[in-house]
Specification:
Strand content: 25-35%
Mean pLDDT: 94
Low-confidence stretches: 1-8
Radius of gyration: 20 Å
Largest sheet: 7 strands, mixed
Order of helices and strands: HEEEHEEEEEEHEHEHEEHEEHEHE
Number of strands: 17
Structural class: alpha/beta
Distance between the termini: 18 Å
Length: 340
């Protein structure tokens, strides 16, 4: 890995014809690879990466090699190289600046569903301009906010509803912040970690510990990534109610107690997945429209609360190890591609 890393460092410096890319090669392990970057053709643009973000839930599963065989094709990121489990170049939270391409985009900051790499060429359609009111680092949260939009479209909370979000990670907090904008809504976030309270309350929601949940809610959204969190969500749903599951468990088994009053209360458990626009909005909205909306919503500075620590791109080996062993931070860790 030493020689590969050294070449990557030299490539990243100032050579637009080559890129430094991070590949996950085993459980918690990876390597930098030097990759050629061609010149853009008409309808394409060349982008220099400023920031990438770690999508902790999904990328932890990737770092552990826990993407189920049945989902390996559906789980492919739009610009992924390699195949699951390993080696794979993965990631989909990339913010960069257009260096070469159409005049309307040149010099613009753009978001794209690209892996962790220093440069790339993509079609103009794959690039979504970041609004001028959104700092580049905050823009890496576009994927989380887009997911939150889709979850709320699926859950459909109404004016005055009691909304319960189980899990104060990046997705749960993004859902809570957006739900707080619904007039009269009472939004509560439940988490096992009491240190999350200050973040939740700063986002405008109420906080409750997992040992003392607030009781029945009108809308229940599970984003904890744990079986215990899903069980709590089931207990909190109203009669004839629905639990919308935003978590994805990969190859992990999730034990769930569906006895007691689960049937008598006629409860439903439904998944929400960002790969397709929610059925309620699919006739009018495209995935690009939804992503554009998410970037516009990021003009809200409160979303900075969801940004975790920053690491240099050189620290991706340590970051990947942390994803695999479970020590990675729950909020969005950002990777700075301008730091040597």
């Amino acid at each position: 890995m030493g020689d590969t890393t050294q070449r990557a460092v030299e490539v990243h410096a100032d050579r637009p014809e080559a890129a430094t890319a991070w590949w996950t090669t085993g459980h918690g392990r990876g390597e930098f690879r030097s990759e050629p970057v061609r010149s853009p053709t008409p309808g394409e643009a060349s982008v220099r990466t400023l920031w990438t973000g770690i999508s902790r839930g999904t990328e932890s599963l990737v770092a552990r090699g826990m993407v189920p065989p049945s989902e390996q094709e559906r789980m492919r990121a739009p610009f992924q190289d390699g195949d699951f489990p390993f080696p794979v170049k993965y990631g989909y939270l990339n913010v960069g600046v257009v260096e070469e391409g159409p005049a309307a985009l040149r010099g613009r900051t753009v978001f794209a569903l690209l892996p962790h790499q220093s440069r790339y060429v993509a079609t103009v359609e794959a690039l979504v301009p970041v609004p001028s009111g959104v700092p580049a680092r905050r823009a890496v949260l576009a994927g989380a906010v887009e997911t939150a939009v889709n979850v709320l479209w699926d859950a459909a909370p109404a004016i005055g509803d009691r909304v319960l979000v189980v899990g104060a990670g990046m997705i749960g907090c993004a859902v809570a912040r957006l739900a707080c904008g619904i007039p009269g809504a009472e939004v509560t976030v439940v988490d096992v970690d009491p240190e999350k309270q200050h973040v939740v309350e700063a986002l405008g929601a109420r906080f409750a510990g997992a040992a003392d949940p607030p009781g029945e809610a009108d809308v229940v959204i599970e984003a904890s990534g744990s079986g215990a969190g899903l069980q709590l969500a089931v207990r909190s749903a109203p009669t004839d109610g629905e639990i919308v599951v935003a978590s994805w468990y990969g190859a992990g088994l999730v034990p769930l107690e569906l006895g007691a009053d689960f049937h008598s209360r006629r409860l439903r458990i439904r998944s929400s997945q960002v790969g397709a626009v929610a059925a309620s909005h699919r006739a009018r909205w495209t995935t690009r429209d939804r992503l554009t909306l998410a970037l516009r919503l990021l003009e809200d500075p409160a979303f900075d609360l969801l940004l975790g620590a920053t690491a240099s791109w050189r620290q991706l080996p340590e970051v990947t190890a942390g994803l695999a062993d479970g020590t990675a931070a729950e909020l969005c860790q950002t990777i700075d591609w301008s730091r040597e």
